Amino acid sequence: MYENEELDAVLLCVSPKLHPQLATEALASGLHVWMEKPASTSVREVDEMIRARGGRVVVGRLQEGFHAGHR
User: Average pLDDT of 34-48?
Assistant: First the structure.
């Protein structure tokens, strides 16, 4: 996908166990990364993603689901 498409960023909506590998691959391809929290299951893996980041933007955010009673 990274070689065949013109992408600016990827959205990682998978298990945190997969974030480090997928984020590192995307960053190595020059892409920005958005992922749901938590970024990883270990501090070591977060450190690896930080080192791979370079000048690219990496965002970790908690995605809230819709709740009918929530205002």
Answer: 92
